[in-house]
Amino acid sequence: EIIKLDKFNEAKESLEFMKEKLSEIDELLKSIKDVKSKEEKEISEWEKEMENLKSKLESLTTNVFEDIEV
């Protein structure tokens, strides 16, 4: 009887430990997902800025240099 109770308590402790670790992993995954989302947003903003700069450069090139005859 005592051995069975000890094994039961060990199993219960192991399950509680696994539950805690799974909770920690869940929190880490949420944190990673948040960081990834922020990175994707920042990259998207950089891409928009690059397109804006390209457009301005193209416009400048067209308006200033293409109208000049050499």
Structure description:
With 70 residues, this protein is an all-alpha fold. 91% of the residues lie in helices and 0% in strands. The chain starts with a helix and ends in a 5-residue tail after the last helix. The model has no long low-confidence stretch (mean pLDDT 92).
Helix content: over 70%
Shape call:
rod-shaped
Q: Please give the alpha-carbon distance between the first and last residues.
A: 103 Å
Which residue ranges are poorly predicted, with pLDDT under 50 across at least 5 consecutive positions? none
Structural class: mainly alpha
Mean pLDDT across all amino acids? 92
Strand segment tally: 0
Percent in strands: under 5%
What is the count of helical runs? Answer: 1
N-to-C SSE series?
A: H
Radius of gyration: 30 Å
Largest sheet: none
Task: Offer a quick outline of the entry.
The protein is an all-alpha fold and 70 residues long. It has one helix spanning 2-65.
